């Protein structure tokens, strides 16, 4: 049964990676504008002063314009840094240089904080491969965010940032998978 679940997740992730890879420049530009505005709206509506987010890679729904907006307004942001033990450290977003972490993901070069630094945030924005209509999130298979969310005593709202076609009817689910409270897409915000 576990092998079947792994195979289903692997196939779905491969399909989603390919869809992201072949997005046109026109689609990417329109998606960037929509996602940025919807992230601003969500942050404003929730009156967020401190959040955890991530630096998007070229194929992910873009977060960088939104992060620049947060810096301009003095909203404090923590960004994840992958650790070898499967946990996430956190670093304050300062809008300056970035480097790749051990998984090759972009991370800031600012002061490195431990895993519990996230405990004071008002909102958590997470990457996802897809999310279903019940709020079940499927990540990219490393489990970093599932471990982080599962270990928090008082978890604030968690929203995944995805493309419109990545809000799906159902995703393969395992015991350790953590749901989200909503999604931000180019066309809107959906809360579960």
Automatic annotation (TrEMBL):
It comes from the Bacteria. It is an enzyme of class 6 (ligase). Signal peptide: none annotated. Pfam families: 5-FTHF_cyc-lig (PF01812). It catalyses: (6S)-5-formyl-5,6,7,8-tetrahydrofolate + ATP = (6R)-5,10-methenyltetrahydrofolate + ADP + phosphate. Keywords: ATP-binding, Ligase, Magnesium, Metal-binding, Nucleotide-binding. GO terms for molecular function: 5-formyltetrahydrofolate cyclo-ligase activity. Its cofactor is Mg(2+). Transmembrane segments: none annotated. Its EC number is 6.3.3.2. InterPro entries: FTHF_cligase, FTHF_cligase-like_sf, NagB/RpiA_transferase-like. Belongs to the 5-formyltetrahydrofolate cyclo-ligase family. This is 5-formyltetrahydrofolate cyclo-ligase. The lineage of its organism: Bacteria, Bacillati, Actinomycetota, Actinomycetes, Micrococcales.
